[in-house]
Amino acid sequence: GAGVSQSPSNKVTEKGKDVELRCDPISGHTALYWYRQSLGQGLEFLIYFQGNSAPDKSGLPSDRFSAERTGGSVSTLTIQRTQQEDSAVYLCASSLGGGSKAYEQYFGPGTRLTVT
Amino acid sequence: KQEVTQIPAALSVPEGENLVLNCSFTDSAIYNLQWFRQDPGKGLTSLLLIQSSQREQTSGRLNASLDKSSGRSTLYIAASQPGDSATYLCAVLTGTASKLTFGTGTRLQVTL
């Protein structure tokens, strides 16, 4: 079946502009995660959605970052007033909400963001 | 705060060799541990998942072990092939947010 998809695959933006990154999780997965992979920081957690519960935003680096998940499916990560340090690969993952393999996370191909 | 370390950072082996990648974590209160593979410019591919109650998992030429009490996991790759060349990441699932904490990765090159 279809895996996690992300769009765009690449995004180049000017410093100060807003960007939106999209994630389509695997159908039926109730949990959705955003991670960021950058050269200096490795792979780090940003935000987690589980069903209708309030999201865990503990990994968001600043208030310029926000994310929403509409209808329990598609998610959008928004970065306002982008800075050069926001340049990274943004990875989305999803997982099932229950069962012995509930927490295996499946990753999308990522969006490479470059802020010039 | 959970910290995950992988050793070695890079490894180069000739084709056919067996090899072991190491992963250690500081907080043993994990739900599970996942090994991933990442090819250059690509996303992550899940290789093996070990639940906290398990000791090992096997898939083809890959075998992963988990010693939760000592905070260690190993990924054993048998009869390595050039196609195994990639970066291997281990990650542990901890906390109520079910977030993964990733290691720093081991960059593997298998030469002909």
How is the secondary structure organized here?
The complex is a heterodimer of chains A (116) and B (112).
Chain A lengths: L4 E3 L2 E4 L5 E6 L6 E8 L3 E9 L14 E5 L5 E5 L8 E8 L10 E2 L3 E5 L1
Parallel strand pairs in A: 2-10
Antiparallel strand pairs in A: 1-3, 3-7, 4-5, 4-8, 6-7, 8-9, 8-10
Chain B lengths: L3 E4 L2 E5 L4 E7 L6 E7 L5 E8 L4 E4 L2 E6 L4 E6 L8 E9 L4 E4 L3 E6 L1
Parallel strand pairs in B: 2-11
Antiparallel strand pairs in B: 1-3, 3-8, 4-5, 4-9, 6-7, 7-8, 9-10, 9-11
Describe what this molecule looks like in 3D.
The complex is a heterodimer of chains A (116) and B (112). The model of chain A has no long low-confidence stretch (mean pLDDT 91). Chain A is globular. Helix content of chain A is 0%, strand content 47%. Chain A contains no helices and 10 strands. By secondary structure, chain B is mostly beta strands. Helices cover 0% and strands 59% of the residues of chain B. In chain B, strands 2, 4, 5, 9, 10 and 11 form a 6-stranded mixed beta sheet that branches. In chain B, strands 1-3-8-7-6 form a 5-stranded antiparallel beta sheet, with no helix packed on it. The chains are: A mainly beta (116), B mainly beta (112). Chain A binds chain B through residues 31, 33, 35, 42-45, 48, 50, 56, 58-59, 91, 93, 95, 100-101, 103-110, 112, and chain B through 31-32, 34, 36, 41-46, 49, 51, 89, 91, 93, 96-102, 104-105.
